[in-house]
Amino acid sequence: MANGQEPVIIQGGMGVGVSAWHLARAVAMTGQLGVVSGTGVDIVLARRLQLGDPGGHLRRAMAEFPIPDMAARVLDRYFVDGGKAADTPFKGCALPKADCPVERLELLVMSNFVEVTLAKEGHDGIVGINYLEKIQLPTLPSLFGAMLAGVDYVVMGAGIPRAIPGILDQLAQGEAVELPLVVQDAARTDRYVTRFDPVAFTDDRVPWLARPKFLAIIASATLATVLARKASGHVDGFVIEGPTAGGHNAPPRGALKLNERGEPIYGERDAVDLEAIKALGRPFWLAGSYGTPQRVVEALDRGATGIQVGTAFAFCRQSELTDDIRQAAIQKSIRGEIDVRTDPVASPTGFPFKVLELTDTLSDKDVYESRRRVCDIGYLRHAYKRRDGSLGWRCGAEPVDAYLAKGGKPAETRGRKCVCNALMANIGIGQYRSGEGCEKTLVTSGDEARHIHKFLPSTGGTSYSAEDVVAQLLSAVETGVAITP
Ligand SMILES: Cc1cc2nc3c(=O)[nH]c(=O)nc-3n(C[C@H](O)[C@H](O)[C@H](O)COP(=O)(O)O)c2cc1C
Q1: Tens digit of pLDDT for each residue in 353-364?
Q2: What angle do CA 338, 476, 215 make, to 5 degrees?
Q3: Whose C-alpha lies nearest to ligand 1, atom 17?
Q4: What is the best residue among 27, 311, 347 to mutate for testing ligand 1's pocket, by most ligand atoms within 8 Å of CB?
Q5: 417, 362 Cβ separation under 8 angstroms
Q6: What percent of the chain has pLDDT over 70?
Q7: What pLDDT score does 158 carry?
Q8: pLDDT, tens digit (0-9, with 9 covering 90-100), for 81-92
Q9: Could you tell me what percent of the chain has a pLDDT over 90?
Q10: At residue 346, does pLDDT exceed 90?
Q11: What is residue 479's predicted lDDT score, i.e. its pLDDT?
Q12: Predicted TM-score (pTM) of this structure
């Protein structure tokens, strides 16, 4: 830990389920910050219980849940002893809505509790959880579940998470909370919110909760300044993420221009003013191609507390990406054949999304075009105001007719990919559809995937561990000598 207080390395949160408890726990045990992804973990828990929970880890964590009858209800709904058959589809979950049914709330709270509990098990290192501001409906019960398990940090990007710091303060006091919803086509005076009341939810059995630190992931000093001054509570630090990072990227400032590969062009205006960030007087970490020993030294020299790294951890043994995906990426990295593309339209969030080109994935035009459009997870649906003032939900990757019937524009459906279903497939829990087979994958990674083979042990072997990544990244800090990667 730097200064005995903050970690030098943050292992970035990676959804859906890529940075789950195995990875975050391994990193936390090295003394750095391990971060579980909180995105979609309700579906992940429901599906892993239907696979029989091999090893019994999920049920072990659920047994720790402070309200045992709630844990019993979740088990009753989803657990399949011995696991479901491979050609039986997973049971569906109701799509997220502003007034979430109680079953879904219970699954959200439980799944966030389980991830953090397992990541913190058996050591006293620090564990964080990552959410996307853009995905609003699950946020309140998810935060509560993570706090019930004693999460140390909440790390949040993909939007302006102004309301979250105050919500953490309120949840720590056992108060009811509300989150204003971003609603397309709404008037400035309209106010839509989602609410969560921990006392009502737990039948007044809510224990005392510690307030985790809150880190905002941002790509501009202006945004950091707005958050530092105007957020609803204290922002404890910033992760400053550049456009080569894996996952979603902030769009370039100004009018969108594309290069010959159809990728957004970033320029000087997108460089973050680190002096302005330093002036805010909060710890900050740099992200986006900082996964080498030299870059760690460089970040520290520039006044950062440390770095956040995702890609190097995404392909290590403790990541939940399937073995096939991890091995394909490592082999491509060895051969110098990694191709990462920033797709401006693939993600229904509207943010540019980094895609690692691999065969038989949705990044392949034929595979994409042959998939029947289905929207049955619904995490990336946007809220919109219907003519009668009520809330509707639509996703640019849902069946086109349904999207247009909800007032969406045809251009918003072009090239949109069902990221929800594909990301589940990436971690081996893709939906099986009778007559169509299993959902295809779509893998995200940062440009740094080119270098992941450098984490392979010098003694040989085709895989590396989270501990290998941490040791290599810190090697130059500890010795003062930068290693040539
Ligand atoms: C597979 C993958 C999934 C990611 N998912 C998320 C996510 O759900 N939320 C988020 O804030 N960042 C996400 N990221 C970004 C990482 O947390 C991290 O900031 C980024 O990877 C750092 O840059 P690097 O890719 O050069 O290491 C993801 C990155 C990868 C590689």
Answers
A1: 999 999 999 999
A2: 75
A3: 12
A4: 311
A5: yes
A6: 98
A7: 81
A8: 999 999 999 998
A9: 92
A10: yes
A11: 53
A12: 0.96
232 Cα: distance to centroid of ligand 1 (angstroms): 26
| Backbone φ, ψ for residue 17 (5° rounding) | 70, 10
**Of the candidates 287, 442, 245, 261, the residue with the CA atom closest to the CA atom of residue 355:** 442
Tell me the C-alpha distance between 168 and 209, whole Å: 10
Helices (H), 197-322: 198-201, 221-230, 274-279, 293-301, 311-314
With 90 as the cut, is the pLDDT of residue 375 above it? yes
Write the CB contacts of 103 (distance below 8 Å, at least 6 apart in sequence): 73, 77, 94
Give residue 460's pLDDT: 84
Predicted pLDDT at 98: 80
Tell me, in angstroms, the distance from the centre of ligand 1 to residue 184's CA: 27
Q: Which residues pair with 37 in a beta bridge?
A: 130
**Smallest CA separation from ligand 1 atom 11, residue:** 157
Q: What is the pLDDT of residue 206?
A: 79
Q: Which residues neighbour 340 within 8 Å (Cβ) at sequence distance 6 or greater? A: 354, 355, 356, 357, 445, 446, 447, 449, 450
Return the percent helix, strand and coil in the chain, to nearest 5: 35, 15, 50
Give me the pLDDT at residue 482, please: 45
Tokens 């943050």 belong to 10
Residues with CB under 6 A from ligand 1: 12-15, 18, 37, 39, 130, 132, 157, 217, 241, 244-247, 287-289, 291, 308-311, 314, 444-446, 448
E-strand spans in 209-325? 213-218, 237-241, 284-287, 306-309
Q: Are 146 and 211 spatial neighbours (Cβ–Cβ below 8 Å)? A: no
Ligand 1 centre and the CA of 309: distance in Å?
7
Atom of ligand 1 nearest to the CA of 157: 11
In tens, the pLDDT along 277-312 reads 999 999 999 999 999 999 999 999 999 999 999 999
Across all residues in the chain, what is the average pLDDT? 94
Domains of the chain are: 9-336+458-479 (3.20.20)
Q: What pLDDT, on the 0 to 100 scale, is given for residue 484?
A: 42
Mutate to test the pocket of ligand 1, among 9, 14, 294, 316 (most ligand atoms within 8 A of CB): 14
Question: According to the 3-state scheme, what is the secondary structure of 67-125?
Answer: CHHHHHHHHHHHCCCCCCCCCCCCCCCCCCCCCCCHHHHHHHHHHHHHHHHHHCCCCCC
Length of the chain: 485
Determine the atom of ligand 1 nearest the C-alpha atom of 217: 11
